[in-house]
Write a structure and sequence with these properties.
Elements lengths: L3 E7 L4 H21 L5 E7 L2 E7 L8 E9 H4 E2 L2 E2 L1 H9 L8 E5 L2 E10 L4 H14 L7 E2 L6 E2 L3 E8 L2 E2 L3 E2 L2 E2 L3 E3 L8 E3 L6 H6 L7 H18 L3 E2 L3 H8 L6 E6 L9 H12 L1 E5 L5 E9 L5 H33 L2 H6 L4 E3 L3 E2 H15 L7 H10 L7 H5 L6 H9 L4 H9 L14 H20 L13 H14 L6 H11 L8 H19 L5 H15 L4 H15 L4 H15 L15 H22 L3 H22 L7 H19 L10
Antiparallel strand pairs: 1-3, 1-11, 2-3, 4-8, 5-6, 7-8, 9-10, 11-12, 13-14, 15-16, 17-19, 18-20, 19-20, 21-22
Helix pairs in contact: 8-9, 11-12, 11-16, 11-18, 12-15, 14-15, 15-16, 16-17, 16-18, 16-19, 17-19, 20-21, 21-24, 22-24, 22-25, 23-24, 23-25
Length: about 700
């Protein structure tokens, strides 16, 4: 079975472009192979200079295709025996003449149909036709144009390799024709050379100083970093972000150690690490007890002259650290003389968003929200107000202006230096957490409270002015803000009354929020969508939908932990033998009674033993289920439902016909089922589950 290689050689791509390009290349390949009836093992590999697709185990040809396709109604396709635009369009879509269309009779009437029989084409011919489209589907965070054409790609394309085993698959993309010529490492093996076979790709590049497989390159890089750190008498500081950045910056990794003056260690660790990590892409080295050492490690693409490289790196890093040292010293002069007041005052002239006012106004809104909700989460309102007042002040510091990634961290550092209480100082830093998917949530209730206040204010304000995310555009990070609130409530120190927060925040905006109920409804829908995105990575889709639906309609979409408890309780029930029968029975009860108003059940009209038994058990169970539901003990409520109601409701549906002709008997049975459906719907909407 043949193997295929596609390599697109480009000018150096940034790390994020490599990751994005490979993801989209793989996704596009899988879609196009499916569309063209080809199956293969799909793999991608790449570096800053090349994106490669490898297909293993391809068939020699497509399998034949034979199927009958139904089209528009016959009456719409032919008028007075003449084909209409509907018939012509259907025929053209499937590559047949109008004469090949046939009439087929279905229960819904007569329709146009066509029988398609297509022989499989050689794989090489199919690939030659789809490769240009595949390349065009590769996406990047940004694209650029070059030369005189209108073509856009992540970086200019310089060469393309397309081999099916040992044969070139001819096609053209970005004005470059495919062949078998590839290139090695830019410095260590710059000459181009031919690839004999698609299967030789990785080994041929390895001989030219290119480790093309990302996993292999990462493993070698980490091995070199770990060994170099040990040789310096320390251990490598773990940094997943930096690992993923550096692994895509080099084709063959080398590690060059460097050093800086120990005096710079008087700066906060976060400042030193940020200078090395975020500005220079250097790895920090720590002692066995965790102390930062005055050494660093730089991953480079070639180490032909490591001493010269280290000397240049040291010089650049020293200059950056001196700048940081100066900024911190100047900032300390301000806070030690006047506290945070000078910086806090400047926020009143810094625009947050033109229609939403200044950062200072935002701080006031955060203060008000934090003070209002502090008692609900066990936080002293005075601490909440003070922490909120200081939480954005360090944005006006010199160090944060130069190193924005240190916002919050430096606020905590300066607050501690001037004697602010430790919990308040810590909350300044914590309220930015989680900054990303891998970041921890705020450990303290005060930090979590500020974090929610900040995010809710941004979400509500942006929706009130119509600045919700559109497509990939999300300039205020609203998706990240919503997920941050979810994680704080699900994993952190406080619960979040989502509806209460939204209402209180909208109130802070005064006239701007008047008549904007539609905007708040859109925010709720947006938030539910983000909830589903996050939860469906952890729980089955139907379980999430059933619980969110009940949480919104039965509990008003308030406590996020209430939603969490419903999900956990239903997942626990799902692992028992009760789940399947109950899901079927309650779904049936809901569907039968969804248009029924319901009412009291008349015992005198319960004629069948099964309906009398169900009514008796439900009368005993309902108060206890309601009590547990009111208390938020959803696991206990569902356990009671499962243990007491499963058998009676199964027996009822097996032996009792509900929709009898006698209206009184029918309505009485519907009322019984309506009461049961309403009772369990308060916990979870069983009718949305896939039984």
């Amino acid at each position: 079975m043949p193997d295929f290689l596609l390599e697109i050689g480009v000018e150096e791509l940034p790390s994020s472009f490599v990751r994005s390009g490979l993801r989209s290349m793989e996704a596009a390949a899988r879609r196009l192979l499916t569309q063209h009836r080809l199956e293969a093992e799909v793999g991608v590999a790449g570096t800053a200079r090349r994106l490669a697709l490898q297909l293993r185990g391809l068939p020699k040809a497509q399998p034949p295709r034979e199927e009958t396709l139904q089209g528009p109604p016959w009456a719409a396709a032919f008028k007075d025996g003449e084909p209409t635009r509907a018939a012509l369009g259907f025929a053209k879509k499937h590559g047949v003449s109008v004469g090949a269309l046939e009439r087929v009779t279905t229960p819904k009437g007569d329709y146009v149909s066509v029988h398609i029989r297509e022989e499989g084409r050689p794989t090489g011919a199919v690939l030659g036709e789809l490769l240009a489209e595949l390349c065009g589907r590769i996406t990047f965070p940004k694209t650029m144009r070059w030369g005189e054409g209108e073509f856009a790609f992540g970086r200019p394309v310089h060469w393309i390799v397309a081999l099916l085993d040992d044969a070139v698959v001819p096609f053209e993309f970005a004005g470059v024709a495919s062949d078998r010529q590839t290139r090695g490492h830019r410095f260590l093996a710059p000459e181009s050379f031919p690839l004999a076979d698609a299967g030789d790709y990785a080994s041929a590049l390895a001989s030219a100083h290119v480790v093309v497989a990302t996993d292999a390159r990462r493993a070698r890089m980490l091995e070199l970093l770990t060994r170099a750190a040990e040789e310096l008498g320390g251990v490598l500081a773990e940094d997943p972000f930096l690992v993923e950045e550096c692994v895509s910056l080099v084709e063959e990794p080398f590690v060059v150690p460097g050093s800086f003056e120990p005096g710079f260690l008087e700066l906060p660790d976060e400042v030193v690490v940020s200078v090395m990590r975020d500005h220079q892409r250097y790895f920090a080295v720590r002692s066995s007890d965790g102390a930062l050492l005055p050494r660093y490690l730089n991953v480079v693409n070639t180490a032909a002259d490591p001493e010269r490289i280290a000397k240049g790196n040291d010089r650049v890093l020293r200059a950056r650290l001196k700048d940081a040292q100066f900024f911190v010293a100047e900032d300390l002069k301000v806070v030690e003389a006047s506290g945070f007041a000078p910086w806090r005052g400047k926020l009143d002239s810094v625009v947050f968003q033109r229609k939403l006012g200044t950062v200072g106004a935002k701080v006031q809104r955060i203060q008000s929200l934090a003070r209002e909700f502090a008692p609900q989460v066990g936080v002293d309102p005075a601490d909440a107000e003070k922490a909120a007042d200081l939480c954005k002040a360090d944005l006006e510091s010199l160090i944060v202006f130069e190193f924005p990634e240190l916002q919050g961290t430096m606020g905590r550092f300066y607050a501690e230096r001037v004697g602010v209480e430790a919990p308040v100082a810590a909350a300044i830093e914590e309220h930015y957490q989680p900054a990303g998917a891998q970041d921890e949530v705020p450990p303290s209730a005060l930090g979590a409270l500020l974090g929610v206040a900040d995010r809710v204010d941004t979400l509500v304000g942006c929706f009130l002015i119509g600045q919700q995310p559109k497509g990939n555009a999300d300039p205020f990070g609203l998706r990240r803000a919503a997920l941050g609130i979810v994680r704080i409530a699900f994993e952190g120190a406080i619960d979040v009354d989502l509806e209460g927060w939204v209402r209180a925040s909208a109130k802070q905006y005064g006239a701007l929020a008047e008549g904007k109920e539609e905007a708040l409804t859109a925010l709720r829908e947006f938030f539910d969508a983000r909830l589903r995105v996050w939860l469906k990575d952890r729980y089955p889709r139907d379980l999430v939908d059933a619980c969110i639906s009940a949480w919104r309609t039965e509990a008003g979409g308030r406590s996020l932990r209430d939603l969490r408890d419903r999900i956990v309780a239903l997942e626990r029930l799902r692992d028992t033998a009760h789940y399947g029968p109950l899901a079927v029975a309650f779904k049936r009860a809901h569907n039968i009674t969804k248009e029924v108003q319901g009412g009291p059940v008349d015992p005198a009209l319960l004629l069948e033993p099964a309906e009398r038994e169900l009514a008796r058990v439900f009368a005993e169970v309902q108060p206890k289920v309601d009590e547990r539901t009111e208390a938020g003990d959803y696991a206990g409520a569902l356990q009671l439902v499962a243990e007491r109601l499963r058998d009676p409701i199964d027996t009822f549906f097996e032996g009792v016909f509900v929709m009898v002709d006698d209206a009184r008997l029918r309505d009485n049975r519907l009322s019984l089922l309506k009461g049961i459906a309403d009772c369990v719907n308060r916990i979870v909407h069983f009718h949305l589950l896939q039984a």
